[in-house]
Amino acid sequence: MIQGCVGNTVDTTDSINKQLKAGKNIIFQPGVYHVDKPIEVSKITVKANKKIKKLINKALK
To answer: How far is CA 58 from the centre of its chain?
Structure first.
């Protein structure tokens, strides 16, 4: 089971970063997000075929 939450335009940057730090995936609802600092994404997990994983790893190097 994938752990996650749904982000919406009233979420603060701190609350979004807290969820990401806890290892949750966030699906953002459409809208305009006003953030006062960067959203900190430290790990990318992709469940896809090997070709896509290789392309992502190459792009991150």
So the answer is: 19
37's CB contacts (< 8 A; 6+ apart) are 13
Whole-angstrom distance, CA of residue 53 vs CA of residue 39 = 23
- How far apart CA 28 and CA 55 sit, in angstroms, is 24
In the numeric block, the tokens 């790990």 are attached to: 43
- Per the document, the length of the chain is 61
pLDDT of residue 27: 84
pLDDT tens, position by position, 9-43: 889 999 988 988 888 888 888 899 889 999 888 76
> In whole angstroms, what separates CA 43 from the centre of its chain?
8
The answer, as to whether pTM is greater than 0.70, is no
